[in-house]
Write a structure and sequence with these properties.
Blueprint: H1 7-19, H2 31-43, H3 52-60, H4 73-78, H5 83-98, H6 100-118, H7 131-140, H8 146-155
Helix pairs in contact: 1-2, 2-5, 5-6
C-alpha cells in the first residue's frame, strides 16, 4: 500500500498532527483509525495501486481478528489487538454510520473534556481521560448500543465485513 516516495506515510502523520493540534490524544479507539481512514481518503485521490479500504480489508482477511467476539469487542476497542487496523474499522464504521461531522464532534468533545481536567494531572500526560471515559464520550455522541452495533457491522453477522468485498486487483 505504501507508495515509493512515502506520500502515504506523510499524509498519515499529518493526520496525527491535526488530531493532536490541541495536545490531546484521542485514545486507542480513534487515534490510528482517524489517521488511516481520513488520510486514506486523501491518498485515494492519488494514483496508488489499491485504496486504503482494499489494503485493510486484505489485512483483516488474513484472520487477524478471528478472536473478536461480542463479549470482547469493547475491551478490544479500548486496548486493540493492533491499533492500526481495528481502529481503522471502528472509525470507518463511525463515518459510514454517523457521518464525518459526527466524528469531528466526537473529537471536539474528547478534546474539550480532556482540556477541562488537564490542569489537574501531571505535566506531559497527553490525555488525562481514561480509555473508558473516551469510549463513553463516543457512545454519548452515537448510541448506548455502540459496542453491539459495531460488532454487528464488523462481523457482518454471518461473515466478516471484508469477506463480501471485492479484493481483486483492478487494471
Amino acid at each position: 500500500y505504501l507508495d515509493e516516495n512515502g506520500t502515504y506515510v506523510l499524509v498519515h502523520e499529518l493526520m496525527h498532527t491535526l488530531q493532536l493540534r490541541n495536545g490531546i490524544d484521542l485514545g486507542n479507539a480513534l487515534t490510528e483509525g482517524f489517521a488511516i481512514y481520513y488520510g486514506g481518503l486523501i491518498c485515494d485521490k492519488l494514483p496508488y495501486p489499491k485504496n486504503h479500504d482494499e489494503y485493510y480489508n486484505e489485512w483483516a482477511s488474513m484472520g487477524q481478528f478471528d478472536e473478536i467476539t461480542l463479549a470482547n469487542t469493547e475491551s478490544s476497542l479500548l486496548n486493540p489487538p493492533d491499533n492500526h487496523p481495528f481502529s481503522y474499522f471502528f472509525v470507518r464504521y463511525l463515518a459510514e454510520t454517523y457521518g464525518d461531522q459526527k466524528v469531528y464532534e466526537i473529537i471536539d468533545a474528547i478534546t474539550e473534556a480532556a482540556q477541562n481536567v488537564k490542569g489537574k494531572v501531571y505535566a506531559g500526560q497527553v490525555n488525562p481521560l481514561s480509555q473508558e471515559a473516551i469510549y463513553e464520550i463516543i457512545k454519548a455522541h452515537t448510541s448506548d448500543k455502540l459496542t453491539e452495533e459495531f460488532y454487528r457491522y464488523f462481523s457482518g453477522l454471518e461473515e466478516p465485513v471484508w469477506s463480501s468485498m471485492d479484493l481483486s486487483e483492478s487494471d
